[in-house]
């Protein structure tokens, strides 16, 4: 693609970066739209649009055309990740979300592996990537129009007893907090400092994710492997990321813990990037690439389950998820411009090590803060005799309700 479209200098980096501008800004409006409209219509519709844009990108023949297509691709694709994460939270209680989000996110890691395989498909392999992935997306989107259900209360595949069970389970898990639309719930999300702590954690995790997605073949190539072998060797890091994403998601739900798994995964990834930063041997450095991917990929699903679980009320949760993912995706702009000093890429690896460290520190603070607030609420409930029978009084308070407990 660099040769065909004359991507000299920072043109490839710029093309990678412009995607994230509208992609980030459109995520909060998209999740509000998902709440106002039906998920079974909103998500397949935006999938169909970006699948069409992606398919037509195979016809791009200029740098300017690529920039334009990437901007519109970002706008169309903005609603998927926060939308599906929010959608999962409408079906499953807090303790069961990490594994579901992990299964969903693992598809992204598999897609990264397939991209490496498709890229060796011939003279214009980049065009095949756009065409085949775009058409596949459109097929899945069309199918989803017929097989995607909106909410448990309207799902026709559930029996009446099953529907009642699921709705009671979700109501109990959410402390009977409000589920309707009201602008004040949007303001609750924007005014809550804990939202911004979670945003900081997420951006520190997502910058390494995007760096892996954008530059893994380049990094491997600069270790001394041929371009074709580098594409194939980019597959194992994504496969490792996929497997550990699902595994960590399962155990995070089993132990009902989020923060320790985020910290652990970020630390493992930090070890991998330390190896990449300090070692020059191709074999050892390649092992560092796999360790980095295996560590950081699982943190995304766990962290989104954490951020969503600690936002009380349906609408506030949707807005918080979109805010966290939206700002985090702006980190993709950073990822696009830090790998500029081959062959060792000290600037890129060092920058990512700094972001991972920030995520670890903020996660430690969040765990301490959530535990502190939970203890204060326990004391308040004991002193005031507040029980679940009083939940209707606090329906509009979101996670500020004295009955709401934060997940650690």
UniProtKB/TrEMBL annotation:
The keyword Membrane applies. The keyword Transport applies. GO terms for molecular function: transmembrane transporter activity. It holds the Pfam family MFS_1. InterPro entries: MFS, MFS_dom, MFS_trans_sf. Residues 1-408 form the Major facilitator superfamily (MFS) profile domain. The chain crosses the membrane at residues 12-30, 42-63, 101-120, 126-149, 200-220, 232-252, 259-278, 284-306, 318-340, 352-370. This is Major facilitator superfamily (MFS) profile domain-containing protein. It comes from Paxillus involutus ATCC 200175.
């Amino acid at each position: 693609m660099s040769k065909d479209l004359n991507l000299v200098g920072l043109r490839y980096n710029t093309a990678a970066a412009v995607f994230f501008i509208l992609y980030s800004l459109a995520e909060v409006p998209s999740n509000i739209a998902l709440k106002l409209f039906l998920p079974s219509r909103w998500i397949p519709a935006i999938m169909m649009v970006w699948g069409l844009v992606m398919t037509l990108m195979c016809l791009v023949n200029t740098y300017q055309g690529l920039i334009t297509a990437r901007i519109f691709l970002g706008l169309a694709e903005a609603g998927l990740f926060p939308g599906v994460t929010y959608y999962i939270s409408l079906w499953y209680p807090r303790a069961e979300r990490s594994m579901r989000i992990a299964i969903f996110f693992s598809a992204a890691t598999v897609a990264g592996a397939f991209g490496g395989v498709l890229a060796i498909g011939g003279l214009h392999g980049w065009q095949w990537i756009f065409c085949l992935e775009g058409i596949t997306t459109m097929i899945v989107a069309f199918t989803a129009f017929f097989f995607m259900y909106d909410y448990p209360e309207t799902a026709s595949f559930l029996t009446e007893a099953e529907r009642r069970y699921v709705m009671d389970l979700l109501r109990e898990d959410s402390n009977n907090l409000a589920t309707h639309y009201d602008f004040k719930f949007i303001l609750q999300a924007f005014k809550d400092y804990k939202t911004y702590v979670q945003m900081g954690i997420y951006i520190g995790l997502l910058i390494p994710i995007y760096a892996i997605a954008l530059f893994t073949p380049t990094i491997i190539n600069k270790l001394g492997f041929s371009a074709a072998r580098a594409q194939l060797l980019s597959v194992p890091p994504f496969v490792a990321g996929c497997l550990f994403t699902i595994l960590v998601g399962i155990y995070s739900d089993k132990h009902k813990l989020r923060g320790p798994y985020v910290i652990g995964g970020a630390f493992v990834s930090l070890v991998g990037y330390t190896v990449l930063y300090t070692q020059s041997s191709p074999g050892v450095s390649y092992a560092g690439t796999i360790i980095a991917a295996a560590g950081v990929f699982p943190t995304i699903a766990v962290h989104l389950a954490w951020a969503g679980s600690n936002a009380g009320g349906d609408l506030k949760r949707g807005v918080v998820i979109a805010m966290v993912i939206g700002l985090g995706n702006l980190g993709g702009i950073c990822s696009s411009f830090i790998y500029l000093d081959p062959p060792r890429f000290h600037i890129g690896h060092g920058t990512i090590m700094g972001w991972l460290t920030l995520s670890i520190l903020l996660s430690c603070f969040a765990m301490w803060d959530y535990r502190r607030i939970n203890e204060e609420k326990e004391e308040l409930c004991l002193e005031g005799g507040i029980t679940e029978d009083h939940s209707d009084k606090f329906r509009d308070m979101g996670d500020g309700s004295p009955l709401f407990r934060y997940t650690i």
